[in-house]
Amino acid sequence: MKILGFNETYHMANAVNNLKDNELWLDAINAKTQDGKHFGREQWDQLLGHCQAVTDFPAALFAPELISAYPEAKVVLSNRDVDQWYRSIKRTIDWRYRDPMLFLLSLVDPPSAAWSRMFYKMWSLFTKGDFALHGKRAFREHYQGVRELVPPDRLLEYRVSEGWEPLCSFLDVEIPDCPFPAGNEQESFRQSLRALDRTRALAVLRKILPWLLAITTLVLSMLITFWYKDSQ
Fold it and tell me: What pTM does this model have?
């Protein structure tokens, strides 16, 4: 989307390091499950008002709410084979949901804790707690819901194999003078998260290392003192 000029495109990565956004997404989830207060256009503007487009989770969980809040928006429904989508998500988002590293970091790192609270609740809501059992059903319901809610003149059903032309025509932007992007999303997803994990783990170690050294020094001093007294 950035290649087409939509520089402010909200993606899952935007929420990873943003405490305020995670709190707002949690408010939206609670409103969706009727456990929280109303979350309408004013609240969505606080979260997404600076953006030109949204994609990926957590936004995909709120297709009905976003379509209602922004009735003038165009919607691109990226058609994918459900089995292909399932395999991809199992190796990315669902992998992260079951990743012990995220759980461990959430116990000691405040940014990881804030992100994981939202992420765990979001993914559990979308999959009803079991991606293997409910993932494909959730996929089909999402697509059906979007098709029912968006008028045909504001909806583009699109496959990436179609390239730039139908997408640019629908969005009223010029076709860029570059190849359509292609990459290994699964591998880059894992690599970027592991890099983030290392950064956050090192930050935690830097915070606790002085305390560990102080405690170690204290314990050694006590042991030396006891040994000295016993040797007298």
Answer: 0.82
